Every structure is written in C-alpha cells, then in structure tokens.
Amino acid sequence: MPLPFRVRIGATLLAALTGAGLLAVPAGANPEAPERTGESVAPCRTGLTLRYLVLFPAGTTAATAEAQVKANCGTTTAYYPEIGVAVAGAADPDFVSRLGADRVVSAEAQIRAARKKSASRGPAGPRLAPDRRPAGVDRSDEQWDMAAIRADQANQITVGSRDVLVGVLDSGVDAEHPDLAAAVDPAASAGCVTGRADQRRSAWLPTESPHGTHVAGTIAAAKDGRGITGVAPGVRLASVKVVDDDGYVYPESVVCGFMWAAAKGMRVVNNSFLVDPWVLTCRDRAGQRVVHEAVSRAVRYAVGRGVLAVAAVGNDAVDLANPGATAAKLGLPGGRVDNRCEALPAELRGVVAVSSVGAEGVKASYSSYGLGVAQLTAPGGDHRQTPPGVDNGCVLSTVPHGGYGYLCGTSMATPHVTGVAALLASRYRSASPAQLTRLLGQQAVSLDCPADYDLNSDGAQDATCNGYAGYNGFYGHGMVDALAAVRD
C-alpha cells in the first residue's frame, strides 16, 4: 500500500459529509454578517464539545478575540494575533452560526459526521515492510535512495550544521532512537494536536505511528556506521506533532505547527501530509474557505520569518494541475472543482511541492503530479521499481523503539528534499526561503517525461506528463541533488 501516512478521510467519507449536510452553510448563518462583539442573542446551549478554527481581521488583539469567542459560547484554546486565527472549544451546537460560517469551522465535526456515516475508524496508517536484519549493523547498502540523490557523496564533504534547525511536522519523532538521539532537540519540540503548542515530552513523542520517526531518519539519521545515514546528519531536528492518534491532521494542528516553527527559528520544515478533512480544500466554499485561509496565513507568516516549507503532493496519483479531473477521479462531491481548490499545504505559495520516483527514476505509480504544482522530485519508492539486492522498492529508515523499516510514498520523497535544503541552509546561512528554493531548483538533475507511462501494460497511458526536461508535471525541475548542494 503506497501510503505516505495519508491524513485525509478519502472520497467515501467526503461523500458522507455532503450527505450529512456539512458542506453547506449552516441554517441561519449569514456569510455577510458583521463581527459580533456583544452578548449572545440566545442563551448558550449544551451539546458535544468540539474544536473550532475562528478567523479574525488583521490586528485583532487577544483580548478582543477571546471576548468574541466567550460572548458566543466558546472558550479560547489558543490565539495567534500575528495572523488573526484562534482555536476555540465550544459545546454549543450553534457556535458556527453565532459567529458566522464565513469565519468559523470545526474540522472535528466534519470528520466525526463522516466517520459515523461510513462506520470508518479513520484513515489507515502506514504499513511497514518486514525488517529481518539485526539491529546495530550498517544498512547503507540498502539505501538506494541516498545514492540516487548523491547524499552519500555529499556526506563526505559535509553533514550540515548544528545551527540549522529542521522541523518535522508529523506524528512525533522517537528521540531515543540511536540514530536520532543526537539530532532531536527537546527544547525546540512541541505537540500541536490540540492547536496549542505543548512542550511536554509526552506531547511530541510518537504514540501510534512510525511515520514521523521514519521521515526524521531520512533527514538526519546519524552518520556512525550503524543503521542508516540521513541526508543531513549534522543538523538538529524538532519534533512537532501534528498527526493525532487516529491518523488525522487537523488544520488547527498545522496552524500551530507553522507558528511554532516561526517562533523557534526553524530554517526548514517537512510536511509529509495533506490537511484534513478534504482532499482538496476550496477557497470559495463554506468551512473549507476558513481552513484554506487559516493555513495560508500560518504558512505565509512562517515563510516571511525565514522558514522554508517542503511538502508532499500526495499519493492519489492525480493531476493537481487539473483539479476538476482530480475531483472526478476521486469521486469528490459538490460538482465541478476548479483552481480555487488546492491540496494543502503543498499547493500554497512559497511551499516546495515534492513528487516521488522509484528506484528506476520514474514517477512512482501512486504519486500525484501536475505542471506548475510539483517543483522537485525525490526517491519515495515504488514496489514496481525494486533495485537489485534490496528487499523491496521502498525507502529504508528509522522507526520507533530502535528499529528500521521500509515505507513507500511521497511522504518518503519529501524528507530527501528537506535534507538537501538543510545542507543548503548550512552553507548559505543568510539565504531566504525563496533563495533556498531557487538553489534547490538550479541544482536539481533534469528528468525527461517518460516516453511510455503504461504501468500495467494495458495499452493506455496511466498519466500524462506535460512540459519539457527542465520543468514538467511529473518531476518539476528534476531530481534533488545533495552533492551539487555542497560542492563548490
């Protein structure tokens, strides 16, 4: 199952949202309603306590925001005055209509309704391939992915700088893993699953998923002759937990993660996920617009403070440059989907979007793509492309409790790019996110569109690659190159 730890509920559950009426503006809501700053018109009611995102105009103070939330039957969990976004809890089922559906949404409510409708227990987590080799041995011979981007050669020149802090926005990183213990910085780590940063160790360590630890190993596993070696083993890592134990990435968690990254001065953050609860989040639909705006504000703020964001394009094998066709292929409800609908955070301005290739350097069968969307590619593995002498075609990396395992996905491709970006940030200390992005593209190895992309040999092309060798929909500017990033 070529999953990058897919954190969205899928087409079946999305259809359930429409059936539950949750994609429409709630009854009584007026998107044009003015700010409500006084006491509630009706008494507060009691129901299921849910978490909400609330948008405020730029410049709104914490006191004003908290007063509005309280006056409308809610409690503020966190407020980010820099971007005018609050995370609130409320038991009143009218909380959205009280403040207005144009500025309030509960992703939790969307997901709860969808899961109840479909009897689902949430998205599946990543499936690890068996690892039968003993611990403590050198596994570098299995790291075909590092050879593909010449990271092994780059590490002979430099391993990166401890001054560079890289955020792993994911399911938590095992700070006691022998390959990661020296890299993880507890003082820079936090749990964000509630939308509010929590620095307690238990809040940012992994619990249910190996995904974050696997991603972290690809970025910065120690170069010690044991286990594996990451792309930039000399940099520091921050574990920023945004994936909950059910496998969901709520938008408020992502907002918290980016704001935390900015506050801690992270140079690069890895985002191997798509934001729940929608596959594509639309700027012109009730609820979805709030999520899109809140996450966009957080990303924009972080990038403006020197944080380079790198994100996976996802594992749905769809053309993100053609969202209408994507919606049809995935069976999304709501009719035509146009360019106002995007995969978050990969398609946001200032984010480096990464597709995946297998060991043969061809787009992985599961990887999404799109001309003008995918900016770079990197090894994410593909069972169809298994290199000689390796157990399978996936990527080997660290997993919790001192172990190692293989995973495939754009989630696995993305940390390769993050690692190279960390090497560049180590070399060019004052480089801005835009400058690092340009360097990544300039030093990438161009890849031509495949002459034939008929993966199942049925005579039909499984995807269409638009563009030319220097820039196309499958690979963007090409395969990221660690050696070129460090070589004079």
Automatic annotation (TrEMBL):
Coiled-coil ranges from the UniProt annotation: none
Stretches with biased composition (Basic and acidic residues): 129-139
GO terms of biological process kind: proteolysis
Region named Disordered: 113-139
Family matches, as InterPro entries: Peptidase_S8/S53_dom, Peptidase_S8/S53_dom_sf, Peptidase_S8_Asp-AS, Peptidase_S8_His-AS, Peptidase_S8_Ser-AS, Peptidase_S8_subtilisin-like, Peptidase_S8_subtilisin-rel
Keyword vocabulary terms for this entry: Hydrolase, Protease, Serine protease, Signal
A Gene Ontology molecular function term of the record: serine-type endopeptidase activity
Aminoacyl-tRNA synthetase recorded as keyword: no
Keyword Iron-sulfur attached: no
Listed PROSITE patterns: SUBTILASE, SUBTILASE_ASP, SUBTILASE_HIS, SUBTILASE_SER
Protein name per UniProt: Subtilisin family serine protease
Organism: Crossiella cryophila
